[in-house]
Design a protein that fits this description.
The structure holds two protein chains of two kinds. By secondary structure, chain A is mainly α. Chain A has helices spanning about 30-45, 50-64. The longest helix of chain A is centred in the middle third of the chain and has 16 residues, at about 30-45. The model of chain A is unreliable at about 10-25 (pLDDT under 50). Chain B is an all-alpha fold. The longest helix of chain B has 27 residues, at about 180-205. Classes of the chains: A mainly alpha, B mainly alpha.
Chain lengths: ~60, ~210
C-alpha cells in the first residue's frame, strides 16, 4: 500500500501579517500617550449604583 | 480582645486600612461592616463596568445587585476560595451575569466582531445622529458612545482594565484568553477610540 501525503504549501496560506490592520502602524508609545490623554475623560464616565441598590444588598445580607 | 480569626471584637475597627481578603474574613465572621466596606471600595469599579457594557442604568443596577447576592451567598456558605482576589472574583460573577442576560435576550451588546475590526463603517451610523447630540454634554456622551461602538471583546478589556483596575493576567483569566490577547485587545480598543476621536474632530472642523 502506498502512503500518500499532501505537502503544506505555505505560500498560499494566510499569515498573521495578512490580517494586521493599519492600526499596527501606530507605535506603542503613541497608544500609551493617547491613553494618558483620555484617562481623565474615561474617569469622568465612572458612576455609582444608587444608594437604594446598596441598601437592598446590605438588607439581604443582614436577613441571610 | 480578638476573635478566633484574629479580628477585634466589641470595638469599632478601622476597616479602611484592611485589605480585601481581611474584609472578607471580617464579613464571614459575622461583621456586616466588612461587606459595607467592600461595597464602598469597589462599587464604582464594578457598577461602571456593568453599566458601560449593558448601557441601561436599571439593568446595570439589577445585575450589580444580583452579583452581590451571589457574593453574599457564596461567602456565607463558606464556598469562597480565599486564594482568589475579591475584585476579580466579583467581576467574573458580574461578567457572567451580563453574558447570561444577553443570551437570554438573544441579542448582542451592540457589536460582535473579531478583534481587529475597523470601526469606520460603524462611525458612519454614529455620525448620522451626532448632530442631535451636539448640544448636550458632548464630550461625555461622545466618549461613552464610542466605547459602546467598540467590539465587545475590546470593550470588555478596556472596562476591566480602566474601571475595574484588573491586571492583564486577571483579565486574561476572566475572559479565558492569553495575556497577550488581552494586551492586544486593549491596544486595539485604544487604537479604535483614537481613530474615532480623530474622525470626530475632523467632522467638527470640516
Amino acid at each position: 500500500m502506498t502512503k500518500t501525503s499532501t505537502s503544506k504549501n505555505n505560500v498560499n496560506l494566510p499569515t498573521p501579517n495578512m490580517f494586521q490592520l493599519k492600526t499596527d502602524i501606530e507605535s506603542d508609545a503613541e497608544i500609551d500617550l493617547f491613553y494618558d490623554q483620555i484617562k481623565g475623560k474615561l474617569d469622568r464616565l465612572a458612576t455609582n449604583p444608587q444608594d437604594e441598590t446598596i441598601n437592598k444588598i446590605l438588607a439581604y445580607s443582614r436577613a441571610k | 480582645m480578638a476573635n478566633s480569626k484574629g479580628f477585634s471584637v466589641g470595638k469599632p475597627m478601622n476597616l479602611q486600612s484592611y485589605n480585601d481578603q481581611d474584609l472578607v474574613k471580617v464579613y464571614i465572621t459575622g461583621n456586616e461592616n466588612g461587606l459595607q466596606e467592600l461595597l464602598r471600595r469597589h462599587k464604582s469599579k464594578i457598577y461602571t463596568s456593568i453599566y458601560l457594557l449593558v448601557k441601561d442604568q436599571y439593568l446595570a443596577e439589577d445585575i450589580f445587585q444580583d452579583a452581590f447576592i451571589k457574593v453574599i451567598n457564596t461567602l456565607r456558605s463558606g464556598r469562597y476560595n480565599e486564594e482568589g482576589k475579591f475584585l476579580p472574583w466579583v467581576m467574573r460573577i458580574a461578567h457572567n451575569l451580563v453574558i447570561d442576560y444577553f443570551r437570554k435576550e438573544k441579542r448582542t451588546p451592540i457589536i460582535t466582531s473579531s478583534d481587529g475590526m475597523d470601526v469606520f463603517n460603524m462611525l458612519q451610523f454614529y455620525d448620522e445622529s451626532a448632530e442631535d447630540r451636539m448640544l448636550r454634554d458632548q464630550t461625555h456622551k461622545d466618549l461613552k458612545a464610542m466605547i459602546h461602538l467598540l467590539p465587545d471583546e475590546q470593550k470588555e478589556v478596556l472596562l476591566m482594565r480602566h474601571y475595574a483596575d484588573l491586571s492583564f493576567k486577571e483579565i486574561a483569566d476572566l475572559t479565558d484568553v492569553s495575556i497577550n490577547t488581552a494586551l492586544g485587545r486593549m491596544r486595539y480598543a485604544l487604537s479604535n477610540l483614537r481613530k474615532m476621536l480623530k474622525t470626530k474632530e475632523m467632522t467638527y472642523k470640516g
